[in-house]
Write a structure and sequence with these properties.
membrane, Glycerol-3-phosphate (1)-acyltransferase, acyltransferase, Acyltransf_C, alpha/beta, disordered C terminus, eight-stranded mixed sheet, lipid biosynthesis, 377 residues, transmembrane
Length: 377
């Protein structure tokens, strides 16, 4: 292992990266709180400012993938569609198979300049989580409780609120609702058989109601649906811990641009359309596993420097006072001070491991398991 690779794998480096992310994130959340005074005065200015503030947080995660890990991301798409990316608002359908697929989705947004304004459909509990969750609150992210009877009205209202959004935005949605596992897939295909739906080999059944409401609410605002299918070469199984350790992965992302006019307005017809789309996604997965490529032109979008520059700014701003504090603590020689510092390090290490554990597949949501079982009862 080379010296840089060795340093990237060291826990002290991980701790410093997390320190920068956490402290800068809390500072930005605090600034976002003060922007609330702008909402009744100039809502659009509030939104534009919060897009930039949100970018300062989310771009640090993308920096880990692009610059720290050095992961290669190849985009397979139609060259005519490629020139429209970043110049229009869109609904982005992502498959949900990997621990870092959300990070690759953000990387896709970053390459085309819409990371700061990107939206997601997220569970309500995340809105209470410091840094990312609070950032999403100020970005007007659409939150749901995963109980459609309660969610329909609130989700639709949140989406309608985005109709006058001043920035181009991509609305990222995992229609499967939860990350793919063999257990969830087995249950999902039992539901497909019970409902007379075609079975899928590489995806869970899509949840059509949320997608239909999204299309209805954002029609004439977004221009297209970007059907996106992510895979990694050489049977790589990427993890956030691997990215943090500086491990390089090789991602292939297939994106089809589908004009929104081609998506039916009627909810039942929209549901049929989405099921057909997932059958096509399954076929694309089959072809990728067989040939190692997608049926489109491979393009590597240029990597922009802003994620790295943003991280370097916060690193220079926050590391100096940290090192100054550590020097003062060590020079004081106080046993209580040193013990307190050791305690903080232990707590921080546990916190870092917990944050990484949240993304791990085997510790993921049981939503797909429980919900599908209930449907069969």
């Amino acid at each position: 292992m080379d010296i840089i690779g060795f340093l990237k794998s060291q826990f002290i480096c991980h701790l410093l990266i997390c320190y920068i992310f956490i402290v800068s994130g809390l500072i930005i959340n605090f600034i976002q709180l003060f922007t609330l005074v702008l909402w009744p005065i100039n809502k659009q200015l509030f939104r534009k400012i919060n897009c930039r503030l949100a970018y300062c947080i989310s771009s640090q995660m993308v920096m880990l993938l692009e610059w720290w890990s050095g992961t290669d991301c190849t985009l397979y798409t139609d060259p005519e569609s490629y020139h429209k990316y970043g110049k229009e608002s869109a609904i982005v359908i992502l498959n949900h198979n990997y621990e870092i697929d959300f990070l690759c989705g953000w990387n896709f947004c970053e390459r085309f300049g819409v990371l700061g304004s990107s939206k997601v459909l997220a569970k309500k509990e995340l809105s209470y989580v410091p840094i990312i969750g609070w950032m999403w609150y100020f970005l007007e992210i659409v939150f749901c409780k995963r109980k459609w009877e309660e969610d329909r009205k609130t989700v639709m209202q949140s989406l309608l609120n985005l109709r006058d959004y001043p920035e181009k935005f991509w609305f990222l949605i995992h229609c499967e609702g939860t990350r793919f596992t063999e257990q969830k897939h087995q249950i999902s295909m039992q539901v497909a058989e019970a409902k007379g739906l075609p079975k899928l080999k590489y995806h869970l059944l899509p949840r059509t109601k949320g997608f239909a409401v999204t299309v209805q609410s954002l029609r004439n605002v977004v221009s297209a649906v970007y059907d996106s299918t992510l895979n990694f070469r050489n049977n790589e199984n990427p993890t956030l811990l691997g990215v943090l350790n500086g491990k390089k992965y090789h991602a292939d992302l297939y994106v089809r641009r589908i004009p929104l006019e081609e998506v039916p307005e009627d909810e039942q017809e929209c549901s049929k359309w989405l099921h057909k789309l997932y059958q096509e996604k399954d076929a694309f997965q089959e072809e990728y596993y067989r040939t190692g490529a997608y049926p489109a032109t491979p393009i590597v979008p240029p990597r922009r420097p802003w994620t790295l520059l943003n991280w370097l700014f916060w690193a220079l701003l926050l590391l100096y006072p940290l090192f100054q504090l550590l020097i003062n603590m060590v020079s004081s020689g106080s046993s209580l001070t040193l013990a307190s510092f050791a305690f903080v390090i232990i707590v921080a290490s546990v916190g870092v491991r917990w944050m990484i554990g949240v993304t791990e597949i085997n510790k993921g949501s049981t939503y797909g398991n429980n919900d599908n079982k209930q449907k069969q009862m």
